[in-house]
Specification:
The complex is a heterotrimer. By secondary structure, chain A is an all-alpha fold. Chain A is built from eleven helices and two strands, in the order ααββααααααααα. Chain A has two domains: about 90 residues, no CATH class; about 230 residues, Orthogonal Bundle (MetI-like fold). In chain A, strands 1-2 form a two-stranded antiparallel sheet. Chain A is globular and about 80 Å long. The longest helix of chain B has about 40 residues. Chain C folds into three domains: about 140 residues, D-Maltodextrin-Binding Protein, domain 2 (3-Layer(aba) Sandwich); about 110 residues, Dipeptide-binding Protein, Domain 1 (Dipeptide-binding Protein, domain 1, Alpha-Beta Complex), CATH 3.90.76; about 240 residues, Dipeptide-binding Protein, domain 3, CATH 3.10.105.10. Chain C has a seven-stranded mixed sheet, sandwiched between helices. In chain C, helix 9 runs antiparallel to helix 11 and helix 16 runs antiparallel to helix 17. By secondary structure, chain C is an alpha+beta fold. Classes of the chains: A mainly alpha, B alpha/beta, C alpha+beta. Chains A and B meet through helix 1, helix 5, helix 6, helix 7 and helix 8 of A and helix 6, helix 7, helix 11, helix 12 and helix 13 of B.
């Protein structure tokens, strides 16, 4: 019962955080300078009326909230306007209906753009995370098990170097290398493959994924190795490991049945928190390899100052990270019988 | 389990904080390497004008032929997209990148530190508010935030430092808060509060110094993150192009086609700089972490040291001796220091069905001796002499596979502190079943729960509890469960290593009774390790008293109680409340057991011995055998029969 | 266990794809084009990017075709007749045309489309600029379109060339602004087959096109966000042609025997400009800050700076030589409209210093920087550029050095493009900016930027105001005689060149490349270089 209440509290807190992010997300993008109606475009063909039309189309002619027509520069407006006619309420209303507005740049609903890109990113992050977790955990286990040997020093050294690499730099070097190896250097698939058998399409995608996934794996593997190693070192000096040895279990049995699960626990939290940090890495990897995912959408939106897309992506990512953290908390509860969520 | 090692560290007043810190830090190889690498980078940044072959950003008379020139004598690392010397820009880039790193980290640490301190120290609403804020900020991806703030201001170096700094405080706040909480409850802080010291005084004089080291580690990590972030921002085109950092060099190389022309030097060199500095900081951070948060550098899976001293001792001739320890000596090897002689020349024989008591203060080598019986010594431990015979087979000569067959199925151990000896994330029943299946793979799977229930029943635990986790058990129940587990494979010998230490008196009595009962019922031979001579009196057949790693006295229980010959045994008995003489004053032995890596020259007990005389200071006493198989390690016993 | 599974799948997938490459059946001729962008939208009313226009050009038809030499040819119509007063145009649409979906293409579609563009204010780029002179558009039963203008204009071709004809039967029923038009039913030489934004556009040939049936079967435009990857892709043969690349790649691609490099003026020429804020604060428009340095209002200063600007070095360092020195906002790429009779201010520091000395700007305090004649302020100018430009910072370094030699110092600062827009116009809160324009085939749009009328609208970036010029601008808008109009346009360029309104460091060149071992027939000998232009894509055929 206690646990149920705790879970409810956590969930409620996550919900509150989401609301906070939603509000922040709105105002953040309203305090920007410049006129979004002309974002990144300078065209002598665009006259004053045309600009006004664009502003109306994106709802920028309405007051931001009551009393404020604009926040940058701050323009005090009429406080008596109908609150439902303000940008904030329109934003909130649209959000509830699952709408994130229209991209300044692409004349498409942001939801469509993000939806199209999301799956590609999930694919990249998914495979990359799985590989880096598996490899990182394996190296970490290895390093901890062979503590105080040159094997450990090598594993730790490599991990530290991997951790120190700027993501985009590694991506560029790998792109350079990959292109000399004849690997595809851009995109998710060779265009025009849609008529081919499914397996062949997958193979093509896998080939395109190779370089971005490799970059991702190298960048995050190091961190997981270090965490796994230190966590496992802690576990392995616990008394119950000695008990297990006294019981006559061999090394493999001890690692598998007694050490790994306990040592994985800190990793669960880190993976969830990492999801937030991953965003920065994914932006770099996707834009170097032209991977059509959320990251490159954000990169383009940054370059074009396409705020609705940026705003939508920001919201999507923040909510995902919040939910992932909640999930990690709950998983932790499930995995570790000692924890009764505080 | 590693009492021997821990007891050897004594508490002494530090000379100065820095000296102590430096001494500890010096030992960390990673930390030193990091420090040297960072020092080089800082040196380069400081003396850039002297090191660089050209003036910074000299574009004078650059022509088309100067662009992206490969390394040559004039430009040892080639030229970049504007025909400038890459090496020169690299040197000057160190200035900008390090500046960004240090200043941004300072901002992060400042904000995070204050938030953490305030939240941890003052608690209450402030804590709730600040920590909730931290939680929220922690989940918000900071890149979009950075974009907005950079767009809001001009992409100048100052703003970038500011933005990176302001978004990097969350982890620091968290870490500092928990450290502050920990420090706050320490005795001297509580004392300072009790005598009415002001809050600010406590915060600055007592709490801050202890939080400071954590802040330093956080700062080191924050610098490296800031440098990485700056390069990322530059890559996305949000950097300050007029401040030629390494990130900016990469941005130009990447944006202006270095790769297409094959100018690897323009890409590799600045990237190398970033990796160098970030790596140096990471290594430094690891080193500092090790100093602040020393971790035992051994664990239970590290391979033990092979036995030395192959000279075999003859096994005890008597047939009914099930476990025979002959002249065993165990050292802990400390690199560069004399080894700690944890156990020396100890012999004992366990008869079938007997209960042998092993008595001594903590840190006298009891546990080490017991662990050595099953080759379970920690990695630093080494059997340097002697043998352990189980039914005539030498356990010390066995390899890991062979000894694994003996462990638990023949000889099992009940560890002290069963909370830690049971795996917290597996159910008790599961852990018992594991032992059964390991040593009897043919055991029918469906019968296992039955057998577990039977074992639990044996120690008085309802079988319904078998699905529970150790933390759901009470202390006494855990100890019983540990016993049940020890009995799972019907062993011949059970080693009970202070099984009752952590329990209250009532439970202790119950556990002891249970053990004795089981011994009789199952015909076990038991070695009972304790520091409490009183416990031994009721149960044991023979008693071995250890002091400082050597045998003080070894005899039948009656002999020990009625005719103790070693002054240490005598003192121990005085410390034991005799129910028959309630008025008698209890005495405890003054002083502490010796450090095993710094033993006195003569008798190890001499510094505390009430009967000490000159010879004791110089000559180590031998083990004298008196009548009734009574062994005494004292000069006084020499000659007496 | 899981680990092993995953690897197996990955390896299996790789092996499979490796096999797929080698199939040798009779393959359709697919042209793979690598480009750095992607259309912003396929709705012609809403599109801005040239990538979108490239696709429209291939899939739709319009009344005129823009040729690579800058001239126009009538395309959809057999004939075009204009009334004597120049206000009524009658276009006879070809008979028997068909949409890609098989429906007949008639004058009705044309008239409907022109009315759509005219009457939809949400199409700001078309509506505001191309259709303001449209009065009525009607289709006649004879498959004719009658376009009545509010007044006679000289440049009907350039007004109509980007007004692509849409199928009335599809567009009638859709929301004109929100419609994404991904299916894109057109009538042009290529049909839309598949489109994923920011990934690729796949077009198949419309072999039945009335004037330009393509010889290849498919064209695929693939997006590369990273230009270096684009270069690698053409090197390794992943694409057959690239529409842009870093200039650094030029040398090494030239050396590749299977790759042909083409350099020339782009179809839509780009101009890089150095903008001087010369607005007189007395004319400060509404909402303006007008904080420009007073010295920049003096032609002598601008003239001295022009003489101190080594354009060739700028071109060499920034473009690796792949560009031409510029004169005014009208680039040489606009062909006849470009005033080729002007000669540039020679790079001469001595002369530049002399001009400043004569005008009374002396370095009175000996810090190497000149002051205003009254000694009030040093000649220190703020220099801004949009932070998304990778070339501008390099230019600012070079300019600082060049102008430093004549005692002028700069405070360089990149600014977010939005913020720069806000700072620029009509706020005039800057001294000097580096920015650029893309141009329309007709010079009118860029000439407008210099007018007084453009100051409050935000189109004028300099605040330049010259009544003589303004009058000429109005004249060229209505001058129907081509030669006469050209003369006016040339005269206008001379005025703004003499007044040193801008310094135009260079006109960007297009650098493109194609693989010679894949397709042949690319048009490379025209005034403008645009391999992805329709004229090239319908001509090329596979190398045998």
């Amino acid at each position: 019962m206690n646990r149920t209440r705790a879970v409810l509290r956590k969930t409620a807190w996550s919900f509150f955080t989401i609301v906070f992010v939603v509000v922040l997300n709105f105002f953040l993008f309203r305090v920007l300078p410049g006129d979004p109606a002309r974002a990144g475009i300078r065209d002598p063909r665009l006259n004053k009326d045309a600009i006004e039309v664009i502003r109306v189309r994106f709802g920028l002619d309405k007051p931001i909230i009551n009393c404020f027509d604009s926040l940058n520069p701050v323009k005090v407006g009429n406080c008596a306007v109908n609150p439902l006619e303000t940008q904030f309420f329109i934003y909130a209303k649209n959000l509830i209906q699952g709408e994130l507005g229209i991209s300044y740049h692409a004349n498409r609903p942001v939801v469509d753009i993000l939806g199209e890109r999301l799956w590609n990113t999930i694919l990249l992050i998914g495979v990359g995370q799985i590989l880096s977790i598996i490899l990182g955990a394996a190296f970490g286990v290895f390093a901890a098990w062979k503590a105080r040997t040159s094997l450990e020093y090598t594993a730790v050294g490599i991990s530290l170097v991997a951790w120190s690499l700027p993501t985009f730099w590694l991506a560029i070097l790998l792109l350079f290398w990959g292109s000399t190896m004849g690997l595809p250097v851009a995109g998710k698939a060779t265009p025009g493959m849609s008529s081919l058998p499914l397996l062949q399409q997958w193979g093509d995608i896998a080939k395109h994924m190779l370089l971005p996934t490799l970059t991702y794996t190298i960048i995050y593997m190091g961190e997981y190795t270090l965490i796994m190693r230190s966590s496992l070192l802690d576990v392995l000096s616990e008394d119950y490991i000695l008990s297990a040895r006294a019981k006559g279990l061999n090394t493999v049995q001890i690692l598998r049945d007694h050490a790994l699960k306990n040592a994985m626990l800190p990793l669960v939290t880190v993976i969830a928190i990492n999801l937030g940090f991953t965003v920065a890495g994914v932006i770099q990897i996707e834009s170097v390899f032209s991977w059509p995912g959320l990251g490159s959408a954000i990169y383009e939106a940054v370059i074009r100052r396409d705020f609705p897309v940026l705003q939508g992506a920001f919201l999507l990512i923040a909510i995902t990270v919040i939910l992932a953290n909640l999930l990690a908390d709950l998983t932790y509860t499930y995995l570790d019988p000692r924890v009764t969520v505080d | 389990m590693q009492t021997t090692l821990q007891s050897s560290t004594t508490f002494s007043r530090p000379e100065s904080g820095f000296t102590v810190f430096w001494r500890a830090f010096r030992k960390s190889r990673t930390g030193l390497v990091g420090l040297i690498m960072l020092a080089i980078a800082i040196f380069v940044a400081l003396f850039a004008p002297a090191i660089a072959p050209y003036e910074n950003a000299a574009a004078t008379s650059v022509g088309i032929a100067d662009i992206y020139q490969p390394p040559s004598a004039a430009h040892i690392l080639g030229t970049d997209d504007a025909g400038q010397d890459v090496f020169t820009n690299f040197i000057f880039g160190a200035r900008v990148s390090l500046t960004v790193g240090f200043f941004a980290a300072f901002i992060s640490i400042f904000i995070g530190g204050i938030f953490g301190l305030v939240a941890g120290f003052f608690g209450g609403r402030w804590e709730t508010f600040l920590m909730r804020l931290t939680d929220v900020m922690l989940v918000i991806p900071d890149l979009p935030l950075t974009v907005v703030i950079v767009a809001l201001t001009k992409p100048s170096l100052m703003n970038i430092i500011f933005v990176i700094g302001i978004l990097g405080w969350t982890t620091t706040a968290r870490v500092v808060r928990s450290q502050t909480l920990a420090v706050k409850s320490r005795k001297f802080v509580l004392r300072a509060r009790a005598i009415g010291a002001g809050r600010l005084h406590i915060l600055t004089r007592h709490v801050l110094p202890l939080v400071m080291p954590i802040l330093v580690v956080q700062a080191v990590l924050a610098i490296s993150l800031a440098i990485l972030n700056e390069s990322t921002l530059s890559f996305i085109g949000l950097g300050d192009p007029t401040a030629p950092s390494w990130g900016q060099m990469l941005n130009f190389a990447f944006g202006r086609g270095a790769m297409s022309v094959g100018a690897w030097w323009a890409l590799v060199v600045p990237g190398f700089g970033i990796v160098w500095v970030v790596l140096s900081l990471t290594l430094l951070g690891q080193g500092l972490e090790q100093v602040l948060n020393p971790r035992l550098d051994t664990h239970h899976l590290m391979p033990g040291r092979p036995k030395v001293g192959t000279e075999a001792q003859a096994a005890h001739p008597a047939r009914d001796i099930i476990l025979d320890v002959r002249n065993i000596s165990i050292h802990y090897i400390n690199e560069g220091k004399p080894p700690a002689r944890a156990v020396e020349n100890v012999s004992l024989s366990l008869r079938e069905g007997d209960l042998l008591g092993l008595v001594g203060e903590s840190g006298c080598g009891k546990t080490t001796l017991m662990l050595s019986l099953l080759n379970l010594l920690p990695a630093a431990g080494q059997v340097v002499n002697g043998n352990v015979y189980y039914k005539g087979r030498d356990l010390t000569a066995m390899n890991e596979d062979e000894i694994n067959n003996i462990r638990w199925s023949r000889i099992s151990i009940i560890f002290q502190g069963a909370m830690n000896a049971l795996n917290p994330v597996r159910t008790v029943g599961d852990q018992i079943a594991e032992a059964i299946l390991k040593h009897n793979p043919a055991f029918p799977k469906n019968k296992v729960p039955e057998r577990v229930a039977e074992l639990l029943d044996l120690v008085g635990i309802a079988s319904a509890h078998s699905d529970h986790f150790p933390h759901q058990y009470s202390g006494g129940m855990r100890q019983r469960a540990m016993i049940a587990m020890a009995l799972a494979c019907n062993p011949d010998v059970v080693i009970a290593d202070e099984p009752t230490t952590a329990l209250d008196v009532m439970i202790q009595a119950q556990i002891l009774e249970l053990l004795d009962e089981l011994r009789k019922k199952l015909g076990l031979s038991v070695i009972f390790v304790t520091h409490d001579l009183g416990v031994v009196a009721e149960l044991c057949d023979r008693v071995l008293v250890m002091y400082g790693g050597v045998t003080a006295e070894y005899a039948g229980v009656d002999t020990i109680y009625n005719e103790p010959k070693h002054p240490y045994t005598q003192e121990l008995l005085k410390a034991f409340p005799d129910l028959t003489k309630p008025k008698k004053k209890l005495s405890s032995i003054p002083g502490y057991p010796p450090r095993l890596d710094d033993l006195p020259a003569g008798c190890r007990f001499a510094p505390r011995c009430p009967a000490v005389f000159d010879r004791c200071q110089m000559e180590e006493p031998g083990l004298h055998v008196l009548k009734n198989d009574h062994h005494v390690g004292c000069h006084l016993a020499e000659g007496s029969k | 266990m899981k680990k092993k599974m995953l690897f197996t799948i990955l390896i299996a997938a790789l092996a499979l794809s490796a096999c797929s490459g080698g199939g040798g059946q009779a393959q359709p001729a697919i042209v793979r084009v690598g480009w750095a962008g992607s259309p912003d939208t396929l709705n012609p009313g809403m599109a801005i990017l040239t990538e979108a226009y490239t696709i429209f050009e291939l899939v739709y038809d319009s009344m005129y075709e823009l040729n690579l030499d800058g001239s126009f040819t009538l395309s959809l119509a057999e004939s075009a007749n204009v009334s004597d007063d120049g206000t009524v145009w009658t276009f006879k649409i070809r008979d028997g045309l068909k949409w890609h979906d098989g429906q007949p293409f008639t004058a009705e579609d044309v008239a409907w489309t022109y009315n759509l563009y005219k009457d939809t204010p949400e199409y700001p780029y078309l509506n505001g600029y191309y259709t303001p002179y449209f009065d009525t558009i009607e289709a006649t039963p004879d498959n004719e379109v009658v376009l009545t203008l509010t007044e006679a204009i000289p440049n009907i071709e350039s007004q109509l060339v980007f007004l692509y004809i849409l199928p009335k039967h599809v567009w009638e029923s859709v929301n004109k602004t929100e419609y994404e038009n991904v299916e894109m039913v057109g009538s042009g030489p290529f049909k839309m087959a598949e489109y994923v934004q920011n990934e690729f556009v796949r077009l198949t040939a419309n072999k039945d096109h009335f004037s330009m049936p393509p010889k290849v079967d498919e064209v695929i435009f693939q997006t590369f966000e990273n230009q270096d990857a684009l270069v690698q892709a053409i090197r390794t043969g992943q694409v057959d042609m690239v529409t842009e690349m870093p200039n650094t790649a030029a040398e090494s691609l030239k050396a590749d025997e299977n790759i042909e490099l083409v350099v020339g003026a782009p179809l839509a020429p780009g101009v890089t400009d150095i903008i001087f804020n010369q607005l007189d604060p007395e004319n400060c428009p509404e909402g303006g800050i007008c904080s420009g340095h007073p010295a920049l209002r003096d032609r002598n200063i601008r003239l001295a700076m022009a003489h101190a600007t080594d354009k060739q070095q700028l071109i060499d360092v920034i473009l690796l030589g792949l560009g031409n020195p510029g004169l005014t906002l009208i680039p040489d790429g606009l062909g006849v409209w470009y005033n080729s009779s002007l000669t540039d201010y020679e790079f001469d520091l001595k002369k530049a210093n002399q001009i400043l000395d004569d005008a009374g700007y002396a370095d009175t305090d000996g810090d190497g920087i000149r002051e205003m004649p009254d000694g009030s302020a040093p000649l220190t100018f703020r220099l801004n550029w949009p932070s998304d430009s990778i070339n501008a910072p390099r230019m600012s370094e070079l300019l600082a050095e060049m102008w430093g030699a004549i005692g002028i110092s700069l405070e360089p600062q990149a600014v977010d493009p939005d913020a720069l827009t806000a700072q620029c116009c009509p706020a005039f809160d800057f001294d000097i900016m580096i920015w650029g324009w893309a141009s329309d085939p007709d010079p009118s749009a860029l000439l407008y930027v210099y007018t007084t009328e453009a100051i409050p609208t935000g189109s004028s970036e300099t605040g330049y105001s010259n009544p003589e010029y303004d009058e000429l601008y109005t004249n060229q808008q209505v001058e129907l005689d081509f030669e006469a109009r050209r003369d006016i346009v040339w005269q206008m360029q001379k005025i703004v060149f003499d007044d040193v309104v801008y310094i135009i460091p260079f006109y960007d060149a297009n650098v493109q490349a194609y693989r010679t071992d894949r397709f042949t027939g690319w048009i490379t000998d025209q005034a403008k270089v645009e391999l992805s232009d329709i004229t090239s894509l319908v001509l090329i055929e596979p190398v045998k």
